[in-house]
Every structure is written in structure tokens, then in C-alpha cells.
Amino acid sequence: MQRENAEEIRGAQEELNEIINKRRSLAGLKDHHQSSRKSVDDTLIALQQELDNIDVNEGQEAILKSHLQDKEQQHASAEQSFRNSRFDESIRAENSKLKGIEEELESVTAELAKGTKQADERARLGFLKKELETRRMALETM
Q1: Structural contact between residues 22 and 97, judged by C-beta atoms closer than 8 angstroms
Q2: Strand runs (DSSP E) across 3-131, as ranges?
Q3: In this structure, is the dihedral angle defined by the CA atoms of residues 12, 14, 15 and 20, taken in order, positive or negative?
Q4: Which among 40, 79, 116, 122 has the fewest CB atoms less than 10 Å away?
């Protein structure tokens, strides 16, 4: 029984570790996308400021506008990718799973403690019965 409980606890702990690692991975991916988005935003702002401060001819202006449009498309694409990722929902789902596993782990641990206590009480009862039998035998031989 204790071995089964220990195996259940070990299995629950492994699943818990997997969920925690997945959660960390998703959080890292979220941070990466946020920093990428900020980088694209910063680049876009810098290019816009540079464009505003430059005196250029129409050919150069067309090239710069093309670069600006490319950067705006990259920004929109990164922003859409970030929205589609739904990291917060994934993290909430993983947290929910984690809470369930932790509750199951608590339950199994409590059951294990109860089983251990009962085993100790049975061992003590057996010892006391044996001692009582020994004393009865000693009394009968007297």
C-alpha cells in the first residue's frame, strides 16, 4: 500500500514537474514575443523620426517609405502573432492543472500518513498482544 502511494506520489510529482516546466517555457516565450514586439516598435519609432528629420529627394523618400511599410507589416505580423499565442490562457490552464495535482498530492500524502499511523498502531497492538500472551504463560507456569 505504501509502495503504491509512493508510486502515485512520484507520478504526480513528475506530472507536476512537467507542468511547471511547460509553464516556464510558455512564460519565456511570452517574454520573448513581448521583447520582439518592443524592439519592432522602437525600430519603427526610430525610422519614423529619422524620416521626419531627413531632407530627401522623391526617390529616396520612396525607398524609405517602402522600408517603413515593411517594418509596419513586420510589427503588425508580430503583434498578431502575439495576440494569437494566448499565453495567458495557456498559463491559466496549466495553473489549474497544477492546482489539481497539488490537491491530489495532498490527498495522497494524507492517505499515506493515515496508513502509516494505522500500521504503527497495528504493530503496537500486535506487540502488546504478544507481551500479554507471554505474561499469561508466565502466570500459568507459576
Answers
A1: no
A2: none
A3: positive
A4: 122
* Residue 122 to residue 101: CA distance in whole angstroms: 31
* Segment 71-80 long-range contacts (CB within 8 Å, at least 24 positions apart): 71/40, 71/43, 71/44, 71/47, 72/44, 74/40, 75/37, 75/40, 75/41, 75/44, 78/33, 78/36, 78/37, 78/40, 79/37
Which residue bears the cell 495557456?
90
Cα separation, 49 vs 43, in Å, equals 10
- The predicted model scores a pTM of 0.38
Alpha-carbon distance 84 to 106, whole Å?
Answer: 36
Q: Is the dihedral of CA 92, 97, 100, 102 positive or negative?
A: negative
Confidence at residue 56, expressed as pLDDT on a 0 to 100 scale: 59
Contact 29, 71 (CB under 8 A): no
How many residues does this entry show for the chain?
Answer: 142
Tens of pLDDT, residue by residue over 89-139, are 888 888 999 999 999 999 999 999 999 999 999 999 999 999 999 989 888
Q: What's the confidence (pLDDT) of residue 106? A: 93
